[in-house]
Amino acid sequence: MLNDLQSSGIPVLRVSLSHHPDKFSEGSQELNITKKVNFIFGRNGTGKTTISDQIMSQLSTEYDVCLFKDFDGVVENDRLNAVALGTENAKIQKEIDIVDNDIAEIRKQIEQPEDVNIENLLTKATKSKKAYDTQYNKINAFFVDSARKLKNLSNPQIAKTSYDKPSFKDEIAKASLLSEDSIVAHKNTIKADKKADVPNILFPDIDLSLYLESTNEVLQSSVAQTQDIPELKGKTDKQNFARQGMIIHQHKIGEICAFCGNEISDERWQLLGNYFNDEVKKLESRIASGITKIELELDAIKGIEEIKEVVFYDRFKQDIRKLNLQIVAKRNEYKEFLSSLQAALEEKKKKLFIESTPLEIAIPANFNYIEKECEDLVKGHNELSLNLKTEQEKAKDALRYHEINKMLDEFQYDDESISLAKLSAINDEAQKVLGDKKNELQIKQDARKDLILQTKDEEKIAEKINKLLLSMGVVSFSLKLVKDDDENQKGQYQIKSHDENIRPITKLSKGEKNIIAFLYFIFSLESVDSRSKPKVIVLDDPMTSNDDTMQYLMISEIQKLYRGLRDGNYLIILTHNCHFYLNVRPNTGRTYKENGEEISFYEKYGVYHLFSDGKRTTIKSISKGKQDFKTSYETLWKELVFLHNTEDASPDLMLSPCRKICETYMNFTKKGIEAFYGDNISAKKLFDVNQHSIDDFEAEANGKTKCEILAILQKLFTDNDAVDHINSYWRGGET
């Protein structure tokens, strides 16, 4: 965020900490940097890293914020047994390591595992492919075997000699079962020789209704009698006998009756002639004519023959037999009907003088339906005869489709096909997932190549680091540039020990990593373009577990840095190390001239202390020497006074600095525990109690107030004749 100008002309860097009200107290939620060089001391957990992160976040727009945080600038490269030197290279190496891990994880999925019991994408894809291939080969073998069987079928042969697997597959959709009769018919068609065409079969066209009507008219007719013969009256048999006698006798003189042997008199003949007059003759004639016609029709019906099977192809046998049954049945119906009419007329001849009851019988249907069936039969036969070769091929096809259907059913083709479809879907998905994972591997490998191309050659800075280490008498290790012929990755250095052997990077100590990273950071500041934005250099706890030589080297380089700091640039050093805090700074007692005036150390440099009450941190600006401390022992008293005077601080927090103060005093005065604590051994127990983390809820509360704890400490120093000692440090701790 933008900074106000001070009277000195140096902008104030305002760092807001308001986003962390849980970490910083209400009056310490803004840090104002007013000096070029600043020293911030705070125990671990007081928010130093939060402050450095906020500086980076808030000031990076206006400034080139250069942040050193531990050994982030040194990252191990297992592939080359080297370290990636430089912030960019270290950052890239971390990305490479992430990509390498991703690649390794992907390879676990796409390469054959050593343990046969482990399942991955490759084994799943292999398994699904094998299952699919097995089922596919099973069905394919069925196709081949079925085609072979069909090709070899004979008597009749229903497939061409070229019939093969594709032919069979193409005809699966046409598979259809045939009835036994159809099978026989198709076989007969295949075996048939060409026959002659058959003419249409015709049947008599008789209107039976007219015959019935005419017959009933005759039956209902009668002749009126003009002459009465008492002995014949009402006696039909005698009437018929008399009528027959007139027919067989001639009217001659002296003619003798064939029945009685007497001569037939003229009178008797005349009497019978009048009795059987012309009307009788007419009726008799009608009856005789009707009977004759009926007899002719009966002869025509009797002449209807059954269809001869021999002239037709065998495939029509069943149809012919059915038609013949119909023909015979219909012929019998006609005969029965006409015979009934004939019998009625014969009976009417005996009853000429009375009306007979008309016939009420059903009229049989005509031959039209049968004739149509015969017409279709003849048409089918003649068409077959005309297209016999084509029909024989169709018959072969039908028989072949029938055999295919049987084979499919026996193989349970539908179920096998469904199984293949399911296995195909599973295999497709498995192969897709495996393929996607392989593509992902390629993407990762390409990304890795791009990252390696982005690495920078830091050889000049490495040479500076080696020279500096050598000048300081550090011969335990040096940096050796790695020539990466395989992948051409730059900025990678192996660690060479004093005996010229390459050390495993896993043996590089934390302190060695830290000094390499620190020196790289310092030297890299020199390579920044002078035309870039002003810099804010932040050292977040740069001192770790380095030995004395490394500490001196680090302190020396930092002092060079802030002594040569250009105007407009800022340096902010945050640390929890008392020794480093006290020694990295210049002499706090000397004065400095600025703008013709003498100023103190605390007017020239920014000094801040961070104090925590166990919940939140308070930032205290140090403006004079008595607020500061000159030894780590003084920091304990400063911390104790702060905790005592801070209202929200728990009394328990005072126990730790009390214990450390007592231990430091005992070490300095060479007093043992018994000599120092004397009879007040309960004080030691109190100070040792609750040395746990703040969030350790199993710790027991000490039950003492702040004043009671301070009184116990005061009594201990009073009993050890050190009243002046405690009073001076207590007053020195007050600010």
Would you mind describing this structure in some detail?
The chain has 735 residues and is α/β, with parallel strands linked by helices. The chain starts with 12 loop residues before the first strand and ends with a helix. It is rod-shaped. It is 53% helix and 10% strand.
Strand content: 5-15%
Radius of gyration: 66 Å
Mean pLDDT: 84
Number of helices: 24
Beta strand count: 15
Strand-pairing-aware structural class: alpha/beta
Shape: rod-shaped
Helix content: 40-55%
Distance between the termini: 31 Å
Spatial sequence of strands, sheet with the most strands? 4-10-11-3-14-15
Q: Major beta sheet, specifics?
A: 6 strands, mixed
Unreliable residue runs: 692-700
Oligomeric state: single chain
Structure described in brief:
Helices cover 53% and strands 10% of the residues.
Topology summary:
Blueprint: E1 13-16, E2 30-33, E3 37-42, H1 48-59, E4 64-69, E5 74-77, E6 82-85, H2 87-110, H3 121-152, H4 165-170, H5 180-191, H6 208-219, H7 236-248, H8 266-275, H9 278-302, H10 317-348, H11 368-386, H12 388-411, H13 413-454, H14 459-471, E7 477-481, E8 492-497, E9 502-503, H15 510-526, E10 535-540, H16 548-563, E11 570-575, H17 578-584, E12 591-594, E13 597-600, H18 601-604, E14 606-612, E15 617-621, H19 632-645, H20 655-669, H21 673-677, H22 681-688, H23 706-719, H24 723-733
Parallel strand pairs: 3-11, 3-14, 4-10, 10-11
Antiparallel strand pairs: 1-2, 5-6, 6-8, 7-8, 8-9, 12-13, 14-15
